[in-house]
Design goal:
Pfam families: ABC_tran
Distance between the termini: 34 Å
Largest sheet: 5 strands, antiparallel
Structural class: alpha/beta
GO molecular function: ATP binding; ATP hydrolysis activity; transmembrane transporter activity
Bound molecules: adenosine-5'-triphosphate
Domain ABC transporter: 2-214
Radius of gyration: 17 Å
Keywords: ATP-binding, Cell membrane, Membrane, Nucleotide-binding
Protein name: ATP-binding cassette domain-containing protein
Oligomer: single chain
Amino acid sequence: MIRTRSLAFAYPGAPALRFPDCDVPQGGTLLLQGRSGAGKSSWLALVAGLRAPADGELVVAQQDLRALSGVARDHWRGRSIGFLPQKLHLSEALNVVHNLSLAYFAAGLPASEAQVEQALAALGVADLAHRRPSQLSGGQAQRVALARAVLLAPKVILADEPTASLDDEAAGSALALLQQAAARCGATLVIATHDRRVREALPRAQSLPLHAPVAA
Ligand SMILES: Nc1ncnc2c1ncn2[C@@H]1O[C@H](COP(=O)(O)OP(=O)(O)OP(=O)(O)O)[C@@H](O)[C@H]1O
Protein backbone atom coordinates (compact mmCIF):
# COMPACT_ATOMS: atom_id res chain seq x y z
CA MET A 1 0.00 0.00 0.00
CA ILE A 2 1.00 3.58 -0.55
CA ARG A 3 -0.58 6.63 1.06
CA THR A 4 0.61 10.17 0.50
CA ARG A 5 -0.78 13.49 1.71
CA SER A 6 0.49 16.91 0.59
CA LEU A 7 3.76 15.30 -0.48
CA ALA A 8 6.41 17.78 -1.66
CA PHE A 9 10.06 17.67 -2.58
CA ALA A 10 12.52 20.35 -3.70
CA TYR A 11 15.89 20.05 -5.35
CA PRO A 12 18.26 22.80 -4.17
CA GLY A 13 17.48 26.07 -5.94
CA ALA A 14 14.53 24.60 -7.88
CA PRO A 15 10.78 25.17 -7.46
CA ALA A 16 9.09 22.62 -5.17
CA LEU A 17 7.52 19.57 -6.75
CA ARG A 18 4.06 19.13 -5.17
CA PHE A 19 2.42 15.78 -5.70
CA PRO A 20 -1.29 14.91 -5.73
CA ASP A 21 -2.50 12.75 -2.82
CA CYS A 22 -2.55 9.06 -3.47
CA ASP A 23 -4.01 5.90 -1.90
CA VAL A 24 -3.09 2.56 -3.43
CA PRO A 25 -4.22 -0.59 -1.59
CA GLN A 26 -1.88 -3.54 -1.06
CA GLY A 27 -1.85 -5.53 -4.31
CA GLY A 28 -3.16 -2.59 -6.36
CA THR A 29 -1.59 -1.17 -9.51
CA LEU A 30 -0.79 2.50 -10.04
CA LEU A 31 0.28 4.22 -13.24
CA LEU A 32 2.37 7.27 -12.47
CA GLN A 33 1.89 9.42 -15.51
CA GLY A 34 3.23 12.73 -16.74
CA ARG A 35 5.47 14.14 -19.39
CA SER A 36 9.22 14.38 -19.10
CA GLY A 37 10.19 16.53 -16.09
CA ALA A 38 6.82 16.14 -14.35
CA GLY A 39 8.47 14.44 -11.37
CA LYS A 40 7.93 10.71 -11.90
CA SER A 41 11.47 9.65 -10.98
CA SER A 42 11.44 12.02 -8.00
CA TRP A 43 8.16 10.53 -6.72
CA LEU A 44 9.59 7.01 -7.09
CA ALA A 45 12.71 8.05 -5.15
CA LEU A 46 10.53 9.40 -2.31
CA VAL A 47 8.39 6.26 -2.15
CA ALA A 48 11.54 4.09 -2.18
CA GLY A 49 12.96 6.11 0.72
CA LEU A 50 15.89 7.21 -1.42
CA ARG A 51 15.02 10.87 -0.87
CA ALA A 52 13.29 12.54 2.06
CA PRO A 53 10.17 14.66 1.50
CA ALA A 54 10.35 18.42 2.13
CA ASP A 55 6.79 18.20 3.39
CA GLY A 56 3.79 15.89 3.69
CA GLU A 57 2.89 12.37 4.82
CA LEU A 58 4.30 9.26 3.20
CA VAL A 59 3.33 5.74 4.28
CA VAL A 60 4.62 2.81 2.19
CA ALA A 61 3.95 -0.85 3.02
CA GLN A 62 2.50 0.26 6.41
CA GLN A 63 5.71 2.12 7.25
CA ASP A 64 5.69 5.87 7.93
CA LEU A 65 8.90 6.82 6.16
CA ARG A 66 9.37 9.91 8.33
CA ALA A 67 10.08 7.53 11.24
CA LEU A 68 13.04 5.87 9.49
CA SER A 69 16.54 7.10 8.79
CA GLY A 70 20.01 5.86 7.94
CA VAL A 71 20.67 2.13 8.06
CA ALA A 72 17.10 1.33 9.21
CA ARG A 73 15.72 3.00 6.10
CA ASP A 74 18.22 1.17 3.86
CA HIS A 75 17.26 -2.21 5.33
CA TRP A 76 13.54 -1.37 5.11
CA ARG A 77 14.03 -0.49 1.41
CA GLY A 78 15.97 -3.68 0.74
CA ARG A 79 13.22 -5.83 2.25
CA SER A 80 10.11 -3.94 1.18
CA ILE A 81 10.82 -2.33 -2.18
CA GLY A 82 11.59 -4.00 -5.50
CA PHE A 83 12.98 -1.41 -7.87
CA LEU A 84 13.18 -1.86 -11.63
CA PRO A 85 15.07 1.24 -12.71
CA GLN A 86 15.13 2.53 -16.27
CA LYS A 87 18.90 2.04 -16.35
CA LEU A 88 19.25 -1.48 -14.97
CA HIS A 89 22.50 -1.02 -12.98
CA LEU A 90 23.75 -4.60 -13.33
CA SER A 91 27.44 -4.84 -12.39
CA GLU A 92 29.69 -6.08 -15.19
CA ALA A 93 32.17 -7.24 -12.52
CA LEU A 94 29.69 -9.93 -11.41
CA ASN A 95 27.75 -12.72 -13.07
CA VAL A 96 23.94 -12.80 -12.95
CA VAL A 97 23.73 -14.89 -9.73
CA HIS A 98 26.13 -12.60 -7.90
CA ASN A 99 24.34 -9.50 -9.18
CA LEU A 100 21.14 -10.79 -7.64
CA SER A 101 22.89 -11.78 -4.42
CA LEU A 102 23.71 -8.11 -3.83
CA ALA A 103 20.03 -7.63 -2.95
CA TYR A 104 20.60 -9.64 0.26
CA PHE A 105 23.52 -7.46 1.33
CA ALA A 106 21.45 -4.33 0.73
CA ALA A 107 18.70 -5.75 2.95
CA GLY A 108 21.08 -6.94 5.67
CA LEU A 109 20.12 -10.59 5.08
CA PRO A 110 22.17 -13.77 4.44
CA ALA A 111 22.32 -14.64 0.73
CA SER A 112 20.60 -17.77 -0.62
CA GLU A 113 21.82 -19.05 -3.98
CA ALA A 114 18.87 -21.47 -4.15
CA GLN A 115 16.39 -18.56 -3.91
CA VAL A 116 18.31 -16.65 -6.55
CA GLU A 117 18.05 -19.63 -8.88
CA GLN A 118 14.30 -19.93 -8.16
CA ALA A 119 13.77 -16.24 -8.95
CA LEU A 120 15.64 -16.58 -12.23
CA ALA A 121 13.67 -19.71 -13.12
CA ALA A 122 10.34 -17.94 -12.41
CA LEU A 123 11.29 -15.38 -15.05
CA GLY A 124 12.52 -17.99 -17.54
CA VAL A 125 16.20 -16.98 -17.35
CA ALA A 126 17.71 -19.75 -15.17
CA ASP A 127 20.08 -20.71 -17.99
CA LEU A 128 21.66 -17.23 -17.89
CA ALA A 129 22.78 -17.55 -14.26
CA HIS A 130 26.51 -17.59 -14.96
CA ARG A 131 26.65 -14.95 -17.69
CA ARG A 132 27.93 -11.40 -17.30
CA PRO A 133 25.45 -8.56 -18.02
CA SER A 134 27.18 -7.71 -21.33
CA GLN A 135 26.37 -11.25 -22.53
CA LEU A 136 22.61 -10.64 -22.21
CA SER A 137 20.18 -9.16 -24.74
CA GLY A 138 18.21 -6.09 -23.64
CA GLY A 139 15.12 -8.20 -22.92
CA GLN A 140 17.12 -10.82 -21.01
CA ALA A 141 18.81 -8.09 -18.93
CA GLN A 142 15.40 -6.64 -18.07
CA ARG A 143 14.17 -10.08 -16.90
CA VAL A 144 17.29 -10.48 -14.77
CA ALA A 145 16.73 -7.02 -13.26
CA LEU A 146 13.11 -7.93 -12.57
CA ALA A 147 14.21 -11.19 -10.90
CA ARG A 148 16.51 -9.06 -8.69
CA ALA A 149 13.64 -6.67 -7.90
CA VAL A 150 11.29 -9.46 -6.74
CA LEU A 151 13.90 -11.72 -5.10
CA LEU A 152 12.95 -10.76 -1.55
CA ALA A 153 9.17 -10.79 -2.20
CA PRO A 154 8.83 -7.00 -1.85
CA LYS A 155 5.59 -5.34 -0.73
CA VAL A 156 5.91 -2.67 -3.41
CA ILE A 157 7.41 -2.93 -6.91
CA LEU A 158 8.46 0.33 -8.57
CA ALA A 159 9.15 0.21 -12.31
CA ASP A 160 10.54 3.31 -14.03
CA GLU A 161 9.55 3.46 -17.72
CA PRO A 162 9.79 -0.34 -18.18
CA THR A 163 8.56 -0.21 -21.79
CA ALA A 164 10.73 2.68 -23.01
CA SER A 165 12.51 1.73 -26.22
CA LEU A 166 10.77 -1.68 -26.45
CA ASP A 167 8.75 -2.71 -29.50
CA ASP A 168 5.07 -3.60 -29.03
CA GLU A 169 5.64 -7.32 -28.48
CA ALA A 170 8.49 -6.83 -26.00
CA ALA A 171 6.53 -4.09 -24.19
CA GLY A 172 3.53 -6.43 -23.84
CA SER A 173 5.68 -9.18 -22.45
CA ALA A 174 7.51 -6.82 -20.02
CA LEU A 175 4.13 -5.66 -18.66
CA ALA A 176 2.85 -9.23 -18.34
CA LEU A 177 6.01 -10.25 -16.45
CA LEU A 178 5.69 -7.29 -14.09
CA GLN A 179 2.05 -8.10 -13.34
CA GLN A 180 2.80 -11.80 -12.77
CA ALA A 181 5.75 -10.97 -10.51
CA ALA A 182 3.63 -8.53 -8.49
CA ALA A 183 0.81 -11.08 -8.20
CA ARG A 184 3.21 -13.77 -6.95
CA CYS A 185 4.39 -11.47 -4.12
CA GLY A 186 0.97 -9.86 -3.50
CA ALA A 187 2.87 -6.61 -4.12
CA THR A 188 1.58 -3.19 -4.99
CA LEU A 189 2.84 -2.35 -8.48
CA VAL A 190 3.75 1.19 -9.58
CA ILE A 191 4.67 1.86 -13.19
CA ALA A 192 6.03 5.30 -14.07
CA THR A 193 5.35 5.85 -17.72
CA HIS A 194 4.40 8.20 -20.48
CA ASP A 195 3.84 5.31 -22.89
CA ARG A 196 0.18 5.16 -23.95
CA ARG A 197 0.55 1.40 -24.61
CA VAL A 198 0.83 0.87 -20.84
CA ARG A 199 -2.48 2.67 -20.18
CA GLU A 200 -4.11 0.60 -22.94
CA ALA A 201 -2.71 -2.67 -21.55
CA LEU A 202 -3.80 -1.89 -17.96
CA PRO A 203 -7.18 -0.17 -18.30
CA ARG A 204 -8.22 -0.94 -14.71
CA ALA A 205 -5.08 0.42 -13.04
CA GLN A 206 -5.31 3.53 -10.86
CA SER A 207 -3.68 6.60 -12.32
CA LEU A 208 -1.72 9.41 -10.67
CA PRO A 209 -1.16 12.22 -13.18
CA LEU A 210 1.79 14.49 -12.36
CA HIS A 211 2.30 18.01 -13.68
CA ALA A 212 5.60 19.86 -13.81
CA PRO A 213 5.77 22.89 -11.49
CA VAL A 214 5.03 26.20 -13.21
CA ALA A 215 8.11 28.43 -13.27
CA ALA A 216 7.69 31.56 -11.10
N1 LIG B 1 19.26 16.32 -9.22
C1 LIG B 1 18.44 17.31 -9.61
N2 LIG B 1 18.69 18.60 -9.30
C2 LIG B 1 17.86 19.60 -9.67
N3 LIG B 1 16.72 19.40 -10.34
C3 LIG B 1 16.41 18.12 -10.68
C4 LIG B 1 17.26 17.00 -10.34
N4 LIG B 1 16.67 15.86 -10.81
C5 LIG B 1 15.55 16.25 -11.43
N5 LIG B 1 15.38 17.59 -11.34
C6 LIG B 1 14.26 18.38 -11.86
O1 LIG B 1 13.09 17.97 -11.16
C7 LIG B 1 11.97 17.89 -12.06
C8 LIG B 1 11.38 16.48 -12.04
O2 LIG B 1 12.37 15.57 -12.56
P1 LIG B 1 12.09 14.00 -12.66
O3 LIG B 1 13.36 13.37 -13.13
O4 LIG B 1 11.51 13.54 -11.39
O5 LIG B 1 10.97 13.97 -13.81
P2 LIG B 1 10.45 12.72 -14.69
O6 LIG B 1 8.97 12.91 -14.80
O7 LIG B 1 10.93 11.45 -14.09
O8 LIG B 1 11.16 12.99 -16.07
P3 LIG B 1 11.59 11.91 -17.23
O9 LIG B 1 10.30 11.31 -17.77
O10 LIG B 1 12.28 12.78 -18.24
O11 LIG B 1 12.51 10.90 -16.58
C9 LIG B 1 12.49 18.33 -13.43
O12 LIG B 1 12.19 19.71 -13.58
C10 LIG B 1 13.98 18.09 -13.33
O13 LIG B 1 14.69 19.02 -14.15
